[in-house]
Amino acid sequence: xxxxxxxxxxxxxxxxxxxxxxxxxxxxxxxxxxxxxxxxxxxxxxxxxxxxxxxxxxxxxxxxxxxxxxxxxxxxxxxxxxxxxxxxxxxxxxxxxxxxxxxxxxxxxxxxxxxxxxxxxxxxxxxxxxxxxxxxxxxxxxxxxxxxxxxxxxxxxxxxxxxxxxxxxxxxxxxxxxxxxxxxxxxxxxxxxxxxxxxxxxxxxxxxxxxxxxxxxxxxxxxxxxxxxxxxxxxxxxxxxxxxxxxxxxxxxxxxxxxxxxxxxxxxxxxxxxxxxxxxxxxxxxxxxxxxxxxxxxxxxxxxxxxxxxxxxxxxxxxxxxxxxxxxxxxxxxxxxxxxxxxxxxxxxxxxxxxxxxxxxxxxxxxxxxxxxxxxxxxxxxxxxxxxxxxxxxxxxxxxxxxxxxxxxxx
Amino acid sequence: xxxxxxxxxxxxxxxxxxxxxxxxxxxxxxxxxxxxxxxxxxxxxxxxxxxxxxxxxxxxxxxxxxxxxxxxxxxxxxxxxxxxxxxxxxxxxxxxxxxxxxxxxxxxxxxxxxxxxxxxxxxxxxxxxxxxxxxxxxx
Lengths: 411, 139
Ligand SMILES: [Zn+2]
What we know:
The complex is a heterodimer of chains A (about 400) and B (about 140). Chain A contains 14 helices and 11 strands. Chain A has about 400 residues and is of the alpha/beta class. Chain A has a domain at about 25-125: Thiolase/Chalcone synthase (Peroxisomal Thiolase, Chain A, domain 1, 3-Layer(aba) Sandwich), CATH 3.40.47.10. In chain A, strand 10 (about 390-395) and strand 11 form a beta hairpin. The longest helix of chain A is centred in the middle third of the chain and has 16 residues, at about 155-170. Chain B is mainly beta and about 140 residues long. Chain B folds into 2 domains: about 15-65, no CATH class; about 65-140, CATH 2.40.50.840. Chain B is globular, with a radius of gyration of 15 Å. In chain B, a hairpin with a 3-residue loop joins strand 5 (about 90-95) and strand 6. The longest helix of chain B has 8 residues, at about 20-30. Chain B has 1 helix and 8 strands, in the order H-E-E-E-E-E-E-E-E. At the A-B interface, helix 6 and strand 5 of A face strand 4, strand 5 and strand 6 of B. The complex binds zinc ion. The site of zinc ion has 8 residues of chain B, from loops. Chain A: GO terms for molecular function: acyltransferase activity, transferring groups other than amino-acyl groups.
């Protein structure tokens, strides 16, 4: 016998009529995040490999939603096939997608189009980065046009930041202020890998050793291990679950090509619409996301921006239209980005202090934190009365930037 | 102050693809090459199957003057692998024909790079004798 819960899956159209149908303006508005989970995050996770931590993350997100694995009928993520098999929930819909916000948007689309109703998206990494005299393996693809020049992520992103500093006079102090702000969010977060490591001042960042000029050690993301997962569900199902649904208001992705193979130019553009240059990767995606959501940057209550390197926060404020081109350096210095400021950033400590669990884990974690902010359940650095959160992933040094808007109310 | 020189350690070497083989063959001869489109005259780099400007497939290899100006730079102190000697300076060069390439700067102090600095290519052997294009400041 199907449970009462399963009954909803089996008769979706009848249920929709019972609940009055949807007023959704975009199909994503019929989708909500209903479960999120971060496993323990650590510099090194003993007793785990990537598969085991990913499966643990998936079980955690399912439990957070008040569901069981049997309620999942769609799975996205690098070890998704393992979850399907180990939980014996097949046959279900599955996507091979594994990269952050694009994976979440694909899950949302699958739900909106009826391919699935409750989708698990998970990621995890452990035991990958063992040779510590080199930079982490995911930072240095062995491409023929970068590898012999000693390139890795910090250098790629530094070339972008340098260009902005040259064009607009953006100062190292502004970058350092961003890094200190994010690291202080992590300093007070007991779940952060670098909990208690601060507090930090901008001067501490500027005094840390240089990694790739203008990036000092404390301007850069850390490396860590961990897993995380989210469960997304059709809105009518989401209303009856353990936590308040956090609705998908909009999202999109801007990609310019493969990461870390070609010169990372700020002005790199495409022929389809040359005004959208790589230096403002995420602009087109954010404009489309705001249009889907029917809101604007001024409506955003918390900015869970992806923070691989400090300048990327400044760049994203400009790309997403929170301030004008070249104004980001001053914008972040006005008390705007602190937890009691107008646009608090990266409130769990982000990639710099909370965790950077490998190639893909951290690409989901901005959305997890945004969900927790909208729910109002953050144990530390909760922003009051969050209605709308903007989460992002990627950056101009990697030739992509993805955005997702979440809300407490259905759009 | 540290004078920037070509890497001498066992650094990772490039491996050519089917498409890029002529580029690396030219480097071995001490020549820097790019692809020019017969349909639109546009230049494409890194080596590609289609023109970056019009998607045409009529790309022909052409020798570059090897001169340009620094577009962006970063001096790296944490090496990608321990085989690299730090500091080294990664640069994106605006080549005079109107294309960009990534390289390393040599022949100046580690803090001498500036955007707009004039540079010229020169080739130095790295791992397995592969000839790698580097750039040196010129007047
Ligand atoms: Zn052409």
